[in-house]
UniProtKB/TrEMBL annotation:
<feature type="signal peptide">
    <location>
        <begin position="1"/>
        <end position="19"/>
    </location>
</feature>
<keyword id="KW-0732">Signal</keyword>
<protein>
    <recommendedName>
        <fullName>DUF4369 domain-containing protein</fullName>
    </recommendedName>
</protein>
């Protein structure tokens, strides 16, 4: 019985030693600024002891920020917010000492171009055509 228990402990220990551990984390941001009123996905990758990278989700990472609210890996900045930038910290839940911090600027002006309607374009082209004649 003691031999069986010893072998079981040894087997479990060997699996634990072989399992990959996240050594460091990195922000892998898709954008250079945050937008107000939308879900800004904050991508965090973990570098494993094998050297490969693994995307980390909110169940593995604890997110905090100087502004906004979190839903999973998404940071939502209120449309009425007046902040210029947001400081974001991501830490491993299993090992909180493994963490990274980044400052991301908030987009100042949302430029939404006003496009002409089909009728407005046709009227404009018709006027230009008449001027040439």
């Amino acid at each position: 019985m003691k031999k069986l228990a010893f072998l079981l402990v040894l087997t479990i220990a060997s699996f634990a030693a072989k399992s990959q551990k996240v050594e460091t984390i990195y922000f892998n941001l898709y954008v250079d600024s945050l937008k107000k009123g939308v879900y800004n996905y904050i991508n965090v990758d973990g570098k494993l002891s094998s050297g490969s990278f693994l995307p980390l989700m909110a169940d593995e990472v604890l997110f905090s920020s100087s502004s906004g609210k979190w839903e999973g890996n998404n940071l939502i900045i209120d449309t009425s917010s007046k902040v210029d930038s947001v400081v974001i910290t991501a830490a491993l839940k299993a090992r909180p000492e493994v963490k990274k911090t980044v400052t991301i600027w908030v987009k100042k002006v949302e430029i939404i171009p006003v496009l002409k309607t089909e009728k407005e374009l046709l009227d404009e082209w018709t006027k230009k055509g008449k001027k040439k004649n």
